[in-house]
Write a structure and sequence with these properties.
This protein has about 325 residues and is mainly α. About 75% of the residues lie in helices and about 0% in strands.
Length: about 325
Amino acid sequence: MGEDQTVNILDPFSSVNFGIADSADGIKQWAISNREVIQPIKTVLNDLIVAIDTGLHAVPPLVMLALIAWQAAGARTAVLVGVCLVALGLLDPNAWGLAMTTLAIVIASVLACFVIGLPLGILAAKSDMFEKILRPVLDLMQTIPAFVYLVPVVMLVGSGNVSGVIVTIIFALPPLIRLTSLGIRGVNPSVVEAAQAFGASPQQILVKVELPLTTPTILAGVNQTIMLALSMAVIASMISVGGLGNEVLRAMGRLDAGKAIVGGLGIVILAVVLDRISQGLGQSGRDRGHRHWWQGGPVGLVLRLIPSRTDALPQQAPELKTTTN
């Protein structure tokens, strides 16, 4: 017979054990035995990261990002981006390649967050019940420490850049969903009623009325997602994710202050660059001089150099009117 356990009234929890840790061990075994289920997702994310990383290294990044900044936010932002990237390249001979790897992981994470978060935000705006169900899930995703879900992600996917993208998605997704839902719910009801009065369907109201009016709010959510994705760079490096975060982690292990400063400043510079570009994308038409985004920057310059179809057509001579006496 086992020994009888006495319950201390002042400390009752010391004698209570529900076996939660043992149950978690069972989840671990299930995750290890079902790794092949998530392999297609892993393959897609890995191909996306490799494609973005290859593209960033193939094109001169200084020129490419400066042109993107010019296109998104004007010439002044392009100058700021160019200065920041020059400073990044001068930090360390390896800083540029590490920054491009970090940027590839961030871009892949933000794209995945946008594909997942935009539909969920729209559903949350259209359904009060779905929003009530989703709210505690988002609260949990935002408050749970990142170290907690590093372990199950590694068990399912293994270590590497793909695991870093999945962890970043979990951490950075909630702001995009919340702000998308908030923006659509904040659309002026009279505008929606006017569209309904003209016979617009719910899909047309969403695409042609609500989403255009909500674009600044959605892009603010994208901006927050980018910043949170960059903040995960160092934490995700603990599961063998490459880039500047891994440089910071290695410097911490060796107490190398110089390498830590280089990695930290590189992440800060990337944050400034991406913040300015995303803010430029969120500018209204009035701020752009009532022009579309493709009518300015390098794309607009190229389009202005290409002769339009009407200019290429020969002009017809005006008809002469004859008068009879």
